[in-house]
Write a structure and sequence with these properties.
The complex is a heterodimer.
Chain A (H helix, E strand, L loop, with lengths): L9 H9 L1 H10 L2 E3 L8 H20 L9 H12 L3 H28 L8 H23 L4 H12 L9 H8 L6 H31 L13 H9 L8 E3 H26 L29 H7 L4 H13 L4 H4 L14 H20 L4 H26 L5
Antiparallel strand pairs in A: 1-2
Chain B lengths: L1 H32 L3 H5 L3 E4 L9 E5 L2 E7 L2 H8 L2 H5 L2 E3 L2 E7 L10 E3 L4 E4 L4 E3 L5 E3 L11 E4 L2 E4 L4 H8 L7
Antiparallel strand pairs in B: 1-11, 2-3, 3-5, 4-5, 6-7, 7-8, 8-9, 10-11
The chains are: A mainly alpha, B alpha+beta.
Chain lengths: 404, 178
């Protein structure tokens, strides 16, 4: 056993048993952050805070929510909204955060793409981030089921039908996933379990991995500069704080993070109190009815781009294109063949690739929302083909990029 | 050397025990997600076919899914007889012909609406169309509406049981198993 001495203070008592000084050094005061990074790097902290809001509001919703096909709708729309004191607050925080979290994830992803933060030793950060995106998607979908409204029911029907694999007709698999022939009690219960326990556990684990993956390669910076973190840290610790290219994470860099978080929270609670309805689909205020389909089924805004990639094609081709869209972002570090990890503006054709991809995904999102008719479905088809084309082109245009 | 082979053996023995346990628990997990016996047992619905009116779509429920029943009138039967593919999709009960099918679009599972004047179905979600025998007439749906397993019992049919007429439909490819 380690040698313990009589503690001189509570701090010392804890330090002997928990090594809190070492912990603080590793996690905060000697976790080095480059100085030249802008507000876009605060999105990680914004996401962590939003996840915290989702967790806390979710816990309070859980106290009155009933995972029963006969009671779920009223437990949300009557009990929580009307009876429970401040129940509406938790629901609006949860609903708005679920939507906004995807906006911030997309900003976080495109920041990473723009600055090449997935390259040269940072691949695991990118991969764990993409796994987090998938886990958040599953979390969002399973949560969307719970109020058991019309959109919940039919989203459950359509999304689980995707697992029949088109012409493979794996209907047995679909029934196994649902635990019934249609979304029903078994389906609601297991998606409730996924939403409140299993997927959140996975997310927490992945957040740990995502943070851990930053430790060795460190955070990238605005100029794509390769910083010798050991040397710069030594400079900082010896007193040359102005000359060092890095600063401590806590409390120095955190103050900038928290500034951005503060502005974000004002925007967030503005939405919660004044525009909560943007995250609520009107169709979902009709109770689930297995004998009546809503005229126009569409997912939440953050899934529209991949929905639109599925839509313009025949069933099988659509499913393949959809699967392609789901996995291709994982491949980014390996498809980008250029040695440069610098901002897109200083690279060759990649500069145009980045903006083309961003604009194409915005077009896909817009087309996914409108009914698939006439001009809209033509634009949707070309946007989907452009998406696939851009990814196929990526290794070629980056291969010939000159080292900067 | 002796010790390390002993550790190796213990490692392998543990691996074997854990492997058996892992496979067994995966099987248990798979079975836990299977539909319950009560869900499966409730998968039968009996319909009295003498109660339906001609060219009036009635939506019944079987396994939680909407079931379209459309009694064909003389004009529709005549039209169907001109096209043997249409005729194969109809079920003869007594002297009447019926279209019975799962009312979920074969594209992505929405419920198409019936227009009795045009005697056709339209799935508003993605524009798929079907005729009065629920055969597809306009893509994206890849095939006509699926016919649920049925067994004819006098003037009644039992949905969920596979009678000879249904088995023939499966063999000739008129419908897929649902």
């Amino acid at each position: 056993m380690a040698h313990f001495t009589k503690a001189t203070s509570l701090h010392d008592w804890l330090n002997q048993r928990l090594a809190i000084d070492t912990l603080r050094r590793v996690l905060a005061t000697e976790y080095w952050i480059p100085k030249n990074i802008n507000f876009l790097w605060a999105m990680g902290m914004v996401l962590a805070i939003t996840f915290g809001l989702l967790l806390i509001s979710g816990i309070f919703l859980l106290m009155y929510y009933q995972p029963n096909v006969n009671l779920a709708f009223d437990s949300v729309n009557y009990t929580i909204m009307q009876e429970v004191g401040y129940g509406w607050l938790w629901r609006h925080v949860h609903g708005v955060a679920a939507s906004v979290v995807f906006l911030v994830i997309y900003i976080h992803m495109f920041t990473g793409i723009y600055y090449g933060s997935y390259k040269n030793g940072r691949e695991i950060i990118w991969l764990s981030g993409m796994l987090l995106f998938v886990a958040f998607s599953a979390e969002a979908f399973s949560g969307y089921m719970l109020p058991w409204g019309q959109m919940s029911y039919w989203a459950g029907m359509v999304i689980t039908n995707l697992f029949s694999g088109g012409s493979l007709h794996a209907d047995g698999l679909v029934e196994w996933i649902r635990g019934d022939y249609v979304p029903a009690q078994a389906f609601l219960n297991r998606f409730f379990m996924l939403h409140v326990l299993l997927i959140p556990l996975v997310i927490l684990g992945l957040i740990g991995l995502h943070f851990g993956a930053l430790r060795i390669p460190h955070v990238n910076n605005q100029d794509g500069e390769e910083i010798d973190f050991d040397a710069e840290a030594k400079k900082y610790l010896s007193g040359d704080k102005a000359g060092s290219k890095v600063i401590r994470f806590a409390n120095d860099f955190m103050s900038k993070d928290m500034m951005v978080v503060g502005i974000y929270l004002i925007f967030f609670f503005y939405l919660v109190f004044y525009h909560y309805d943007f995250a609520m689909d009107p169709v979902n205020f009709d109770p689930a009815n297995g004998l009546k389909t809503p005229t126009h089924i569409y997912p939440e805004w953050y899934f529209l781009w991949s929905y639109e990639i599925l839509r313009p094609f025949s069933t099988n081709v659509g499913l393949i294109a959809f699967a392609f869209a789901q996995v291709i972002f994982f491949m980014l570090p390996f498809l980008d063949r250029s040695p440069n990890a610098v901002p897109a503006s200083r690279r060759g054709l990649f500069k145009y690739w980045f903006w083309a991809m961003l604009i194409d995904m915005i077009i896909l999102t817009a087309m996914g929302k409108v009914p698939p008719e006439g001009l809209f479905s033509t634009i949707g088809l070309y946007a989907a083909l452009t998406f696939i084309g851009l990814w196929i082109a990526l290794p070629f245009i980056t291969k010939f990029e000159k080292k900067v | 050397m002796k010790n390390s082979s002993r550790r190796g053996f213990m490692g392998k023995a543990f691996g074997a025990v854990a492997g058996v346990g892992a496979v067994a628990s995966l099987y248990a997990m798979k079975r836990t997600w299977d539909p319950l016996p009560s869900v499966k047992a409730a998968g039968f619905t009996t319909l009295d076919m003498s109660a339906y009116k001609e060219n009036e779509l009635v939506t019944e429920k079987w396994r939680g899914k909407p079931i379209f029943v459309l009694k064909q009138n003389a004009e529709m039967v005549k039209k169907a007889q001109a096209n043997p593919k249409d005729m194969e999709r109809l079920i003869k009960i007594g002297n009447d012909y019926f279209m019975v099918c799962v009312g979920l679009c074969t594209h992505l599972g929405c419920i198409p609406g019936y227009n009795p004047d045009e005697q056709s179905f339209l799935c508003a979600c993605h524009g798929g169309m079907y005729d009065f025998t629920a055969e597809v007439t306009k893509a994206p749906p890849p095939r006509g509406l699926d016919i649920p397993p049925f067994k004819i019992d006098g003037m009644k049919i039992v949905l969920g049981e596979e009678g000879p007429e249904y088995k023939k439909m499966l063999e000739t490819g008129v419908t897929l198993k649902v």
